[in-house]
Amino acid sequence: MSKLTYHLKVVGRYARIFKNELLQPLGLVNREAEIILAVNRKPGRSQDSIADDLLIDKSGVARCLSNMEERGLVVRTVSPADRRVTLVNLSPEAEKLVEPIREINRKWSDFVTAELPAEEEELLHKTLESVCARVHEAQGRRKKP
């Protein structure tokens, strides 16, 4: 495993652990929080677009949304334009969770960058944006499995 792969894996793993601990009192796990923020950004979006946006497999999103629907966090409806498409909206209860979730994400970012000088933090953001853009570009050229 390359150093880059290892470091990205470690940061991602600890991000999930950190966030899951803070999300637990809200009755959420990180994937559910990500879905809530994704739907908040674009209400009425399809399950497939959530999966694509979050880089999660479609069946995983469907299972998670079923659980969230049972708990009254999301409302799923069939698209009037295409009955094969399921649209997702947040319930009023889930809308109340948006700001606490954003605060948890800010805490993670603050924790990760706490000891970095401002210039290094800015360089880190620019570097990661560049890496993400490159990966997205490469994935866009590849056929999806």
Summarize the topology:
Blueprint: H1 3-23, H2 30-41, E1 45-46, H3 47-54, H4 58-70, E2 74-78, E3 86-90, H5 92-95, H6 98-113, H7 118-141
Antiparallel strand pairs: 1-3, 2-3
Brief overview:
This protein has 145 residues and is mainly α. It is built from seven helices and three strands; from the N terminus they run H-H-E-H-H-E-E-H-H-H.
Annotation keywords:
145 residues, three-stranded antiparallel beta sheet, mainly alpha
Protein model, in words:
With 145 residues, the chain is mostly helical. The chain has seven helices and three strands; from the N terminus they run ααβααββααα. α1 crosses α6. The longest helix is centred in the last third of the chain and has 24 residues. The mean pLDDT is 93.
Structural class of the helix and strand makeup?
mainly alpha
Tell me the β content. Answer: 5-15%
Largest sheet: 3 strands, antiparallel
What is the average per-residue confidence, as pLDDT, rounded to a whole number? Answer: 93
Task: Provide the succession of SSEs.
Answer: HHEHHEEHHH
- Looking at how many chains there are and whether they match, the oligomeric state comes to single chain
Number of helices: 7
How are strands sequenced across the largest beta sheet?
1-3-2
Measured distance between first and last alpha carbons: 23 Å
Number of strands: 3
Radius of gyration: 17 Å
Query: Which overall shape is indicated by the principal axes computed on the Cα atoms?
Result: globular
Helix content: 55-70%
Uncertain stretches? none
